[in-house]
Amino acid sequence: MSEEKKSLNFLEQIIEEDLANGLPKNKLRFRFPPEPNGYLHIGHAASICLNFGLGLKYNAPVNLRFDDTNPAKEEQEYVDAIKQDIKWLGFKWDKELYSSDYFQQLYDWAVQLIKEGKAYVDNQTSEQIAQQKGTPTEAGTNSPNRNRTVEENLTLFLKMKNGEFEEGSHVLRAKIDMAHTNMHMRDPIMYRILKKHHHRTGDDWCIYPMYDWTHGESDYIEQISHSICTLEFRSHRDLYDWYIDQVYDPLKLRPKQREFARRNLSYTVMSKRKLLQLVEEGVVSGWDDPRMPTISGLRRRGYTPASIRTFSDTAGISKRDNVTDVALLEYCIKDDLNKTAPRVMAVLNPVKVVITNYPDNEEEWLIADNNPEDENAGTRKVPFSKELYIEKEDFREEANKKFFRLKLGKEVRLKNAYIIKAESCIKNENGDVVEIHCTYDKDSKSGSGTEASKRKVKGTLHWVSIKHAIKAEVRVYDRLFTDEAPDGHKDVDFKTFLNPNSLNVIEAFVEPSLKTAKNLDRFQFQRLGYFCVDKDTTENRLVFNRTVPLRDSWAKKSN
Ligand code: ATP
Ligand code: MG
């Protein structure tokens, strides 16, 4: 029992306590409340995995609630993308709901508050309202409109609703306490006028409820037992409770807001506003650019839902602000793809090899394991012939003893094929090697069982047969930012730290089995890394994204 207690996170502990104190288990209910003003990112994934994870753990429903109270920024495109991303991550919501479904109920409750003398219409400017707010150590001052009569307030609020006032001219405020130690309690704004078309309610409303008024009441309407949000809302909790108190029926469940630390990731920015800026300014190709920390970007990059869930679980949840190392995310995808991705051969930076003692027109189809980590993955055939490509960096004319790749006079094994020995090379006028002449040991074929096939040589290289290889575009990505905390520098714009080399487009050669690869298929290009087929692929042109290299070249660079 104590073992089990220890492994609970602090939110689970709160839930367990509530259950122990009499909350019936069938009253547990959670929600994930995105604002449809952008695409979901890896930070949202933390909240999704947390809320839906609690739903699974306690067999409780989880609502998907779109927090759509700001028509200026919200769009149907975002609603659709958010739903797609949550489904892709592998979670199922109970009800699909919208804060805008509650606009009438929220309005009726606001009228009730006015009637009870707990809300008033203020027609001061926003500057005047801000000036009267006070400071954390100094009480605010009452608005001259604070003591309007109920009738006056009802008339004014109705006029606000009917569109008789200009945007910004009037607001409805809760009448709480201008001297409250919590600044959020100093007569917060409940409604503002926005003469904007709403993606769901059209032009029905021109007053829109503020976040705090909406969120708590929506949780109450849906009877959410635990409303989990990020730390910046900790100071809103008094207001959340106050708003619920005004409409609370003791026979009903009282939602509880609890907070955890936002997921921050090194070498990226996570705010939707900044990500939107990158999209709008064309820094990236869209919300699903594979360099983006969005779920759609990670999907296109080749991340699996399982790797993102594992990442969220491993990084865990915390009570204090912190930054998670992006290397953990990269580790999670490597670990997953190592078990699941078929192995293939591709040469990204080719140099030609001619096997001088191999018959001119011969070709062989050699057997290759699809995945040594998965005994059910089977085998495939790869063609071998006299002329091959290997990676340029796998050959040197001369090199020291630590260089286990190909050098003049030495042997290496070609993966799944023969042992070859470099005899000579041809260079162009710049001194670059353009062709390497080798001989092969014809008895050394992998898997043939001969003595020569068991001969150990130090290096094994990947290769493709020139005659059979398919050309492919490979997009090699690096981090989008060169700084660990691009938005953590005072007075320096985060875009200052954009990595000018975050995308490198290469023309590569891949083995012919990839001809039938489809969008999002994932592979290990042996010795290089994990790659997946991009949606830009057409019948005549294969395009791959590098998901992650096998070795962590970044760590090496920064050492
Ligand atoms: P952003 O600042 O990126 O625009 P947001 O908080 O405004 O994010 P919402 O759509 O309001 O975005 O968030 C939906 C839910 O996801 C909220 O409960 C929010 O607390 C949570 N969330 C958003 N960003 C993160 C994050 N980085 N880590 C954990 N949870 C997050
Ligand atoms: Mg928000």
Notable features of this structure?
559 residues; alpha/beta; Rossmann fold; Ribosomal Protein L25, Chain P; 7-stranded mixed β-sheet; 29 strands; disordered N terminus; binds adenosine-5'-triphosphate; binds magnesium ion
Question: What does it look like?
Answer:
The chain is of the alpha/beta class and 559 residues long. It folds into three domains: 24-260, 3-Layer(aba) Sandwich (Rossmann fold); 272-342 and 472-558, Ribosomal Protein L25, Chain P, CATH 2.40.240.10; 351-462, Ribosomal Protein L25, Chain P, CATH 2.40.240. The chain contains 14 helices and 29 strands. The strands form eight sheets. The chain has a seven-stranded mixed beta sheet, covered by helices on one side. Helix 8 (211-222) crosses helix 9 and helix 12 (305-315) packs across helix 13 (326-340). The radius of gyration is 31 Å and the shape is elongated. Mean pLDDT is 96; it is low at 1-5. Adenosine-5'-triphosphate is lined by residues 33-35, 43-44, 46-47, 67, 229-230, 262-263, 270-272.
CATH superfamily of the largest domain: HUPs
CATH overall fold name of the largest domain: Rossmann fold
Largest sheet features: 7 strands, mixed
CA radius of gyration is 31 Å
Q: Architecture of the largest domain in CATH? A: 3-Layer(aba) Sandwich
Q: How many strand units?
A: 29
